[in-house]
Amino acid sequence: MIDALNDFLAVAVCGSFSQVAKKQGVAVSSVTRKIDWLEAEVGSRLFHRSSRRVVLTDAGEQFIPRARNILTELAEAKEAISSANADPRGLLSVTAPAVFGRRHIMPVIANFLRRYPDVEVELHLSDQVIDLVEQRIDVAVRIGLLPDSDLHAVTLAPLNLITCASPSYLERAGKPEAPGDLLHHDCITTMATPAAWVGTWSYEGLNRGHPFPARGCLRTDDKEGMLQGALAGLGIVQLPSWLVFEDIQAGRLISLFGDVPQSPQRVRPAIHAVRLPGRSHEVKAKLFIAQLQQAVGAPAYWDPLPVAGSSSI
């Protein structure tokens, strides 16, 4: 089967049985027999043959991508079987949100490559949700609510959001004592509210639990930009703990509303590592996710202790 598929694709490319036979160092009849067998198996002629040329039939054109997929799946299956009893090797593709990936995934990848020197990692940093099947991604880190799917998901950490501001802003504008006071403060907000941020700027007992209408002089679609704006004293911001924990620990930001919980939700957004079950790179994917879990810890290293002004949502 494998030889017949390879010969079929080779003949489809060069349009000649004799050229394929010459490259393989075999008789033309050997190649012809394999194509005859393949045509009998699929129940259709794959080539129009004449003394001058060999041309794909409509069925042959349609069969080309299927033949390539079959050979790819077989090769990946062989890799999966061999890698189960050996050190992982080959390509591992990973995707993660841009800022989170730079800050928290790159160090894990560096350690993973040192531990498994025969592995190559392809990292896609994007805030867009990438289709794992279409882009052939092995592991995706996703933040927020996970829709129902066939993906195998591992929770790495809850998504904790912290309302905070710089000491310079609080000295200039005063410290809000309760979430309702935010109406009289500059708040750094997003230009749009992606799915991962549903429920932000919502507080129990305020606005009936609906999203708080925060306003201010700066709106941006970049989380890093929001952080830099807060550090520059432009206003109050609400960002995930994984992004602001170092600045809070260093005193560059001060968390607010430690005793005021955010509005509860039935399903709590979190940070997940997801993979497609049954992929040939499953062994590498599982090892990488396990290393991610170990690196993040429980609780996550960015949430070592309950932080004032934070809430798991």
UniProtKB/TrEMBL annotation:
<dbReference type="InterPro" id="IPR058163">
    <property type="entry name" value="LysR-type_TF_proteobact-type"/>
</dbReference>
<keyword id="KW-0805">Transcription regulation</keyword>
<dbReference type="Pfam" id="PF00126">
    <property type="entry name" value="HTH_1"/>
</dbReference>
<dbReference type="Pfam" id="PF03466">
    <property type="entry name" value="LysR_substrate"/>
</dbReference>
<feature type="domain" description="HTH lysR-type">
    <location>
        <begin position="1"/>
        <end position="57"/>
    </location>
</feature>
<dbReference type="InterPro" id="IPR036390">
    <property type="entry name" value="WH_DNA-bd_sf"/>
</dbReference>
<dbReference type="InterPro" id="IPR000847">
    <property type="entry name" value="LysR_HTH_N"/>
</dbReference>
<dbReference type="InterPro" id="IPR036388">
    <property type="entry name" value="WH-like_DNA-bd_sf"/>
</dbReference>
<comment type="similarity">
    <text>Belongs to the LysR transcriptional regulatory family.</text>
</comment>
<dbReference type="InterPro" id="IPR005119">
    <property type="entry name" value="LysR_subst-bd"/>
</dbReference>
<protein>
    <submittedName>
        <fullName>LysR family transcriptional regulator</fullName>
    </submittedName>
</protein>
<keyword id="KW-0804">Transcription</keyword>
<keyword id="KW-0238">DNA-binding</keyword>
